């Protein structure tokens, strides 16, 4: 068939028949409706750790909060920010100005998260961030309307850097992506390594973006004879360096360990145990950690693509559950009237859920819970699907995150 | 190209070309009044921030179209001027507390200052080489933005204040900001229209259609190309600066090569070489990005399908096809 103007126009003319497309119905302006907007990456790099799975987790939280039985309606909408701050910012503005969204959830990608952080504060709504890594959200750019739920770069650097030295990784070599994020990760981790009595033997900066061949950097790392090679990079860079390290068999024999500073369980799943075995990493949630996390994983069901929940998705569940508890406590009208008040109420209440156990929220908006240092199992050790991690050590909640007075958050000083 | 047929078919209209207000032909005047009416009325029933985004990108696409549509130079690095305009405007407004009108002008100046050396280098070659040189230079700007401390790396410059215009109008109100953006857009649009219909613009079009002939007539074509390049870069910088104030952010997205691709897409969808085409193209693409955000991953697929459809069947773009069907020049 030739494509010409006539066929295309014909196709467009039949467009109304495509009405099966899920267009959203007009919103009803009910005063006792809480509206939750899940904003994340549905098409790119972070789809697996957040994406539609986060919405699924949020829906479970709504269902389990029991708030709908008290006559409160809860609407959940989702959107793709395409990892672009301007798209994310436009969506959130429209959500708040036009659709009456009360709380924005998830938002991976630091630049988008920081833009949403400013916007939500200006409009006095609630922002529960689960997906972004930047510790600025509870530091220099902290806001009375924002809670940073799941993890941050400081937390990961401390977990992997500090706990790893105590577990025997005394000497380090860094492979660092050459941009602000990589530098920050290397700097923070170095501080924890030296504080715990370890030594950094050296490091190498890899051009970013665009480095696909890490072999020479890995060989440099190997020659340094360091016990731990720290990967201060993210996304595709991390994946590539782990794969190539496996090809060079760097971690076989157990003398050298590879430490990922921003790696998620879904990355391990796509890499496979054959490649990822021996990698050391920090997460704050793992589906197979204990009975409660297994129960949560059971209830939330398989994530899109038949994945198990990531810590980001678990954070969305936990954050929304706690928010709805605060709403039930203070009343829908009060919660809708002021986002800052709702966040204050959330800070005043202890948190408890199956994904993260017992926890609390600090004045600067930092949610506190334990972090865990894991090592990826070998294929022989793994007993079944998604049996990926063995626990090396647990970092208690009061040590897992940056101390309150070190973040430079204005809310703390006042 | 279809230009020839349009020119003969619209021969009668063309005779009136220079007599109308601002050099508009009758159909163009109608189209301009329609656009003006839309710009004036739309904020009362459409979402102003969305409209501001459309207007910023419309100005950006018009600036790009000045180069491709009227001089025939395909720049693949316009994100550099757009993005650096956004960064400098944002930095000036945030760190130095510069008032918004001055900050936006600084964005335009940034575009011009980048455009002079980049244009000077790039116009030495034509066609694919020109496109590649502009892309290479734009990538250098991208890496600069990634590494320079003042841009905030991948976090970008956040929380840029909109400030008060002339110390009188508080721009934090969306509608006030909208009128500023609308004024900037209309001024830029009319400037481009004026450039295109000036004697300078006639030379530009002569270079596009037959450069050796323009040279043989005694024009220093390189000078004209450079001037058009710098004008285009300046307007792109202004568009970027305005966008930075609207959204309070300036990030790597604005300097990324995908942004250069997006502006090509907007011009193609709207209609290359038509004065209103890029405006329509920008509106279509931005509307898709915004209203289809709910469909998640499908946005990019839909965008791709529309692009393919345009290239296969509507090669003149939306406005180009309409103009062709009505036998007028838009």
From TrEMBL, chain A:
GO terms for biological process: amino acid transport. InterPro entries: BCAA_transport (IPR051010), Leu-bd (IPR028081), Peripla_BP_I (IPR028082), TAT_signal (IPR006311). Residues 33-377 form the Leucine-binding protein domain. Keywords: Amino-acid transport, Signal, Transport. Belongs to the leucine-binding protein family. This is ABC transporter permease.
């Amino acid at each position: 068939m030739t494509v010409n103007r006539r066929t295309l126009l014909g196709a467009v003319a039949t467009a109304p028949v495509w009405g099966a497309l899920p267009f959203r119905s007009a919103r009803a302006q009910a005063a006792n409706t809480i509206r939750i907007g899940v904003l994340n990456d549905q098409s790119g790099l972070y789809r697996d750790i957040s994406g539609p799975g986060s919405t699924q987790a949020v829906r479970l939280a709504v269902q389990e909060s029991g708030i709908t039985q008290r006559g409160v309606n809860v609407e959940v909408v989702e959107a793709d920010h395409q990892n672009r701050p301007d798209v994310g910012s436009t969506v959130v503005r429209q959500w708040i100005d036009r659709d009456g969204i009360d709380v924005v959830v998830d938002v991976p990608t630091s630049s988008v998260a920081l833009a949403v952080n400013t916007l939500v504060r200006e409009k006095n709504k609630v922002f529960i961030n689960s997906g972004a890594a930047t510790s600025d959200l509870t530091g220099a750019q902290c806001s009375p309307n924002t809670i940073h739920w799941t993890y941050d770069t400081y937390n990961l650097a401390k977990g992997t850097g500090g706990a790893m030295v105590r577990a025997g990784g005394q000497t380090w070599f860094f492979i660092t992506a050459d941009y602000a994020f990589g530098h920050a990760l290397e700097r923070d981790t170095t501080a924890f390594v030296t504080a715990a009595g370890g030594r950094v033997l050296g490091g190498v900066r890899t051009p970013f973006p665009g480095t696909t061949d890490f072999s020479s950097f890995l060989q440099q790392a190997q020659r340094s004879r360091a016990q731990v090679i720290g990967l201060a990079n993210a996304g595709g860079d991390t994946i590539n360096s782990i794969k190539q390290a496996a090809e060079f068999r760097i971690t076989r024999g157990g003398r050298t360990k590879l430490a990922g500073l921003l790696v998620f369980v879904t990355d391990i799943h796509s890499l496979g145990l054959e490649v990822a075995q021996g990698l050391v990493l920090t997460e704050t949630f793992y589906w197979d950690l204990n009975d409660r996390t297994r129960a949560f994983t059971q209830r939330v069901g398989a994530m899109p693509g038949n994945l198990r929940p990531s810590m980001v998705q678990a954070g969305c569940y936990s954050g929304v559950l706690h928010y709805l508890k605060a709403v039930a406590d203070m009343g829908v009208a009060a919660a809708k009237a002021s986002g800052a008040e709702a966040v204050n109420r959330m800070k005043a209440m202890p948190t408890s859920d199956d994904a993260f156990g017992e926890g609390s929220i600090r004045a600067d908006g930092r949610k506190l819970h334990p972090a865990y240092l894991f090592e990826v199992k070998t294929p022989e050790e793994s007993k079944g699907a998604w049996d990926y991690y063995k626990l090396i050590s647990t970092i208690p909640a009061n040590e897992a995150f940056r101390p309150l007075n070190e973040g430079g958050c204005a809310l703390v000083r006042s | 190209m279809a230009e020839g047929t349009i020119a003969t078919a619209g021969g009668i209209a063309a005779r009136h070309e220079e007599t109308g207000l601002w050099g508009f032909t009758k159909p163009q005047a109608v189209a301009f009044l329609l656009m003006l009416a839309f710009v004036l009325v739309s904020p009362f029933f459409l979402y102003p921030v969305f409209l501001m985004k459309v207007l910023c990108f419309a100005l950006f696409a018009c600036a790009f179209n000045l180069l491709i549509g009227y001089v025939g130079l395909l720049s693949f690095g316009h994100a550099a001027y757009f993005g650096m305009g956004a960064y400098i405007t944002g930095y000036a407004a945030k760190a130095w507390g510069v008032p918004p009108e001055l900050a936006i002008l600084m964005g335009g100046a940034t575009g011009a200052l980048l455009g002079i050396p980049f244009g000077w280098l790039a116009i030495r070659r034509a066609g694919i080489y020109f496109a590649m040189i502009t892309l290479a230079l734009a990538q250098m700007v991208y890496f600069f933005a990634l590494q320079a401390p003042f841009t905030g790396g991948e976090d970008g410059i956040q929380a840029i204040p909109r400030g008060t215009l002339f110390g009188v109008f508080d721009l934090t109100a969306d509608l006030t900001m909208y009128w500023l953006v609308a004024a900037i857009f209309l001024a830029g649009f009319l400037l481009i229209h004026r450039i295109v219909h000036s004697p300078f613009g006639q030379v530009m079009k002569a270079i596009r259609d037959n450069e050796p002939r323009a040279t043989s007539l005694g024009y220093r074509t390189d000078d004209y190309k450079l001037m058009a390049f710098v004008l285009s870069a300046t307007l792109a910088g202004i568009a970027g600066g305005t966008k930075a104030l609207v959204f309070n952010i300036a990030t790597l997205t604005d300097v990324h090569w995908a942004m250069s691709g997006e502006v090509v897409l907007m011009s193609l969808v709207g209609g290359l070489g038509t004065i209103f085409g890029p405006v329509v193209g920008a509106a279509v693409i931005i509307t898709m990005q915004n209203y289809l955000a709910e469909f998640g991953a499908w946005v990019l697929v839909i965008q791709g399908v529309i692009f393919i459809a345009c290239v296969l069947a509507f090669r003149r773009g939306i406005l180009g096809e309409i103009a062709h069907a009505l036998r007028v020049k838009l």
